Amino acid sequence: VTPDALVYSTSLNYEPVPAGNPVIIRTSPAVVPIECHYPRRDNVSSNAVKPTWVPFRSTLFSEEKLPFSLRLMNDDWSAERVSTIFQLGEVLHFQAGVNTENHVPLRLFVDNCVATLTPDRSSSPQYAFIDFSGCLVDGQLDDATSTFISPRPRQDVLQFAVDAFKFVGDSSNVIYITCHLKVSLADQAPDPLNKACSFNKASNLWAPVEGTRDVCSCCEMKSCGLAR
């Protein structure tokens, strides 16, 4: 109580809960302090919420002697992104590529991508947002719009967008991404082991970047051939 007003103070607390996958969340906890002042003029005010910025770091993985690359791009894909800091609610734009200068024409695929809290891809907790030989499974979650970009800019490049996320209960705000990239001959038809499939919520179906829809049927079954 002040000479001019009656003041009520409280806090509005928001604690995010996982939606679809128990390991990750896409919103940050928030505490909004609220003060209500009741003078003769009935004035009400509240404080603002400071955004939480989530750093992101990537780890590259390749095999054989082909020069693979995985880059974070800006929103229009025109250049590599300078900052690796993201806010929950933003979208990460990945561009995978391979230099095929001394090879026959090749088509690039992202076999799987795993997010972890350390550079060790086998560590726990972990979240595979691309799995089963090219199924972008993150796109099935209710709070995600993740997808492969179609058409490709080139056969040796594959782009995909993933909604920013963080691990439940983690306060380090650092995520490591490890992706396994591979290639097939450019004139080879896509198959269940060589594909790039996104989940279309409007049709409730899996759709490939190229090839026939049946190459994605194993994404729904979560079994796409023998393990490597």
Describe this protein's structure:
- This protein is mainly beta and 228 residues long.
- 2% of the residues lie in helices and 40% in strands.
- The protein is built from 1 helix and 17 strands.
- It has one helix at residues 217-221; strands at 6-14, 24-25, 30-38, 44-46, 53-55, 57-59, 68-73, 85-87, 91-98, 106-116, 126-130, 147-148, 157-163, 166-167, 176-185, 197-200, 205-208.
- Strands 6-15-10-11 form a 4-stranded mixed β-sheet, with no helix packed on it. It has a 4-stranded antiparallel β-sheet with strand order 7-9-13-12, with no helix packed on it.
- The protein is elongated, with a radius of gyration of 22 Å.
- The N and C termini lie far apart (70 Å).
- Mean pLDDT is 86; it is low at 40-46 and 54-64.
Compose a concise summary of this entry.
With 228 residues, the chain is mainly beta. 2% of the residues lie in helices and 40% in strands.
Into which percent range does the helicity of residues fall?
Answer: under 10%
Which structural class best describes the helix and strand composition?
mainly beta
Order of helices and strands: EEEEEEEEEEEEEEEEEH
Integer-rounded radius of gyration: 22 Å
Large-scale geometry? elongated
Number of helices: 1
